[in-house]
Amino acid sequence: MLESNLDRAALRRRVQAGLWAFFAGTVALLASLVGLFFDAPELIDGFPAWTTAWVPQSPAGYTAATLLVAWGVWTLGAGLEKARDR
Prior knowledge:
This protein is mostly helical.
């Protein structure tokens, strides 16, 4: 009984981690698209309270954000598949 509850909790955490990673990567990629349409000083002046350190601006940043999305999709799918098999 306890082991079954722990398994369910682990699957729920896996699905939640996948969702979090997917949405975090997606938000970073969308923020970079907004940055392409507006100049950086215009963004900084328009939203002074927001930090722009998490917005990808280099190939390494785009790669990291894309990998975050891919990892999120994979983790979410693996968690849902295991939950479906139970």
